[in-house]
């Protein structure tokens, strides 16, 4: 099935000095406005990202503003937050040192106050806010201690589903109903 924005554009260089006709550019712009990135529009219509940018900018079409991530400058170095795409949350503040080495701000602050981080330990945040790198908010835990601490705080992989599962178990217990798994096992036997 064809998309409403699918349009066969003339091959590169076929339009001469005038560039692409206005209707082609508007079709590309409609795809951009509908939510595609410049890169996705360029890929869809066989152009480069820079070419699409120049087409839109040269014709006075409005482009979306770039989203800047939260950043902190600490001792002359800029630490930028990472954006976790699955839940749109900002995580650790980090800086790139050299070609590929990454330094986390909470590690730097911990090492300034307490020395190197021993192997098998992690620097954790007391309040769970990854952007709060104050020394009194940081603590050093082993992997086992971190799991216990997270369990006490109610932060684990089952937190989002725990209440619904508990409600269904209580409901099944009160009504005398069996769980789905035991019901299926009984039917199979």
Describe the 3D structure.
The protein has 189 residues and is of the alpha+beta class. The protein has helices spanning 22-33, 38-44, 49-58, 105-114, 143-152, 159-175, 180-188, and strands at 71-74, 77-84, 89-97, 101-104, 121-125, 138-142. It is flat. The two termini are 48 Å apart. The mean pLDDT is 78.
What kind of sheet is the major sheet? 4 strands, antiparallel
Sheet-strand content, in percent, reads 15-25%
Shape: flat
Unreliable spans are none
Number of domains: 2
Could you tell me how far the N terminus lies from the C terminus, measured between alpha carbons in angstroms?
48 Å
Secondary structure: helix percent: 25-40%
Strand order of the largest sheet: 1-2-3-4
Number of helices: 7
Mean pLDDT: 78
Q: What class would the helix/strand composition place it in? A: alpha+beta
Give the topology string: H per helix, E per strand: HHHEEEEHEEHHH
Total DSSP E strands: 6
Please compute the radius of gyration using only Cα atoms: 27 Å
């Amino acid at each position: 099935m064809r998309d409403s924005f699918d349009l066969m554009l003339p091959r590169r260089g076929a339009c001469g000095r005038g560039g692409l006709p206005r209707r082609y550019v508007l079709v590309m712009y409609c795809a951009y406005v509908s939510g595609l990135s410049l890169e996705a529009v360029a890929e869809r219509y066989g152009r480069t990202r820079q070419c699409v940018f120049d087409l839109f900018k040269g014709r006075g079409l409005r482009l979306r503003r770039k989203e800047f991530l939260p950043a902190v400058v600490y001792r002359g170095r800029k630490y930028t937050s990472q954006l976790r795409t699955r839940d749109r949350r900002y995580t650790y503040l980090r800086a790139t040192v050299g070609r590929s080495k990454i330094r986390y701000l909470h590690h730097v602050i911990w090492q300034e106050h307490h020395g190197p981080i021993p192997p098998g330990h992690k620097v954790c945040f007391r309040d769970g806010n990854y952007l709060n790198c104050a020394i009194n908010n940081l603590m050093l835990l082993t992997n086992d201690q971190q799991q216990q601490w997270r369990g006490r705080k109610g932060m684990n992989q089952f937190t989002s589903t725990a209440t619904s599962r508990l409600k269904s178990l209580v409901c099944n217990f009160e009504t005398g109903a069996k769980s789905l798994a035991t019901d299926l096992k009984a039917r199979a036997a």
